[in-house]
Design brief:
Largest sheet: none
Radius of gyration: 17 Å
Helix content: over 70%
Order of helices and strands: HHHHHH
Number of helices: 6
């Protein structure tokens, strides 16, 4: 077993163990892949916000350009990490990448430009508007990854919950 395979297996076991210990029957409602998604995308969202701060706050690029560049970098990383660590996909990456790009473009137009930039244009501080847009996109992106992008027999979903 390679180091990467060990890390992937360890991440999966850890997510399954945490979900198994959730109280009040939540262990039957929360899939380990949801926890994995939340962890991975929290990390990549932090990358997104850091890049946004550098690009807009320090380099003074326009908000729309800063958000776009940060978004592309963060979602590329999210795809790779979720494909490998969370959904264990062995399907051809090309088809999944194309479907993911469609999902991301829809997300970008609806939540990033629509909600995030719209709130910033209305005067809400750009970090706060990005956080609110991020909450909306999290539900959409997890659903799309779980049931559209990484669906099929070449993807191993850790639990059949949810």
């Amino acid at each position: 077993m390679t180091t990467t395979e060990s890390l992937v297996a360890g991440f999966s076991r850890w997510c399954e163990a945490i979900v198994a210990r959730l109280p009040l029957g939540l262990n039957r409602l929360v899939a380990p892949t949801f926890l994995g998604f939340a962890l991975i995308n929290s990390f990549t969202f932090g990358i997104d916000l850091a890049l946004l701060t550098v690009l807009h706050g320090w380099l003074h690029l326009p908000v729309w350009l800063s958000v776009t560049v940060a978004y592309i970098c963060a979602f590329g990383l999210s795809f790779v990490l979720n494909r490998t660590f969370n959904f264990h996909s062995h399907a051809p990456v090309g088809r999944q990448a194309v479907v993911y790009m469609v999902v991301v473009v829809i997300n970008y137009l609806a939540f990033i430009l629509g909600v995030g930039s719209g709130l910033a244009a209305l005067g809400l501080e750009y970090h706060l508007s990005r956080l609110l847009a991020g909450a909306c996109e999290a539900v959409y992106i997890y659903s799309a990854m779980r049931w559209v992008v990484f669906r099929g027999r070449d993807t191993v979903v850790m639990s059949q919950s949810v």
